[in-house]
């Protein structure tokens, strides 16, 4: 494979971390490059397929010097892949410390698909930047891009400079620069995020919980954005409410504050232990709640469904029960999540809510002894044998819990190909029931052992 000689040029400091921007033509790579570098250097050309040589620049990310390269582009022609151009871009990938993979929020093409495949070996160092999220109407498109399996997805508008701080924060996090000194060992505290659509009572609940005890705890290196947290103590446990800035700044509605709520929600979920998903009982669910729910499950975070404003119910018959049923029906993916009705306004059932958060957090931190787990696996296998496949029996040989928060299990099986999903659901259910993970997402991965 052709080496990218430009990276080794004398004027490029090879000791600096290398960040490359990659994507098919016309997704906005050079616009982003210019936006980040802050100079209009690379040529922006609206004609698809125009490729350029990679142009490395030294860039100040936070307080760190890094090398930023616009890879130029990957293109398909009638023959399929345009060899030399594409190879050049791809060789850059293996050399990069971080890859910004740019996609267009309006359109996913076969070239994108091809790049997704090429990027698979580098998944851990990719930040997926979904570009052209120019306004609120396009914001929801970000969620679709979670299906590509990247941990880091940021919605941006390179042309309008939106989401750029979030992108920079994510890059910093991935490069692990300054992190250690930036974030001192935190005392044990349960980190909660309060999410939900506007007017569900998030601020009211935050204020109730934290009173005036809101502090600006850290400015993320190199950015001007402060992270505000509120803290409080309940029954001897410390709690932190994350990202209260997103909630509080609302009154001054700066254009891009509420606007980038999807980026914010994603970041907040990542930073939290337990998410409180606020639902206004007088209003019902929003489409976005479902997307948030999916992400929570995928990330293995704890979640409590909070039914707020019960004081506003008319008290006719079993109104609350009907609402609960409806939420359960609409959120099958969160069938394990506790449902707690409260009134943030009147302070009703707040103790119950916090007790629930605490219980969920305990489950997230619970470790199952390997012997205990394997006794169970054996017994569950005796009670209900895995179904027989075309080429013989499936069997779980043994397993182990690989992590807490999120709770993950690794099961060794005799054959991984087509291992029956139904059997995994059976095992997962029993894990919830018998091992004490009734209220949290758990993840099972398989490995073959003969
Ligand atoms: P590249 O081929 O990936 O480097 O893409 P360019 O940076 O040359 O941009 C391709 C086209 O997309 C240009 O017409 C840009 O003006 C446009 N573009 C770039 N970023 C954005 C954005 O955030 N929003 C919109 N609407 N257009 C953008
Ligand atoms: P946010 O946009 O999610 O932060 O919602 P707010 O906390 O600003 O609340 C939106 C509106 O709902 C305000 O007028 C609150 O007073 C009202 N509200 C919040 N919690 C309750 C509640 O438990 N009961 C009732 N009746 N109103 C509430």
Automatic annotation (TrEMBL):
Alphabetical list of CDD domains matching this protein: EngA1, EngA2
Residues bound to GTP 2: 196-203, 243-247, 308-311
Gene3D superfamilies reported for this sequence: 3.30.300.20, P-loop containing nucleotide triphosphate hydrolases (3.40.50.300)
Entry keyword annotation includes Metal-binding: no
Domain EngA-type G per the UniProt entry, residue ranges: 190-365
Matches recorded under InterPro entries: G_ENGA (IPR031166), GTP-bd (IPR006073), GTPase_Der (IPR016484), KH_dom-like (IPR032859), KH_dom-like_a/b (IPR015946), P-loop_NTPase (IPR027417), Small_GTP-bd (IPR005225)
GO annotation terms (biological process): ribosome biogenesis
Pfam families in alphabetical order: KH_dom-like, MMR_HSR1
Annotated positions binding GTP 1: 23-30, 70-74, 131-134
Record's keyword annotation contains rRNA processing: no
Keywords per UniProt: GTP-binding, Nucleotide-binding, Repeat, Ribosome biogenesis
MF-aspect GO terms: GTP binding
Similarity comment: family membership: Belongs to the TRAFAC class TrmE-Era-EngA-EngB-Septin-like GTPase superfamily. EngA (Der) GTPase family.
Task performed by this protein: GTPase that plays an essential role in the late steps of ribosome biogenesis.
Assembly with partners or alone: Associates with the 50S ribosomal subunit.
Protein name: GTPase Der
Gene name of this polypeptide: der
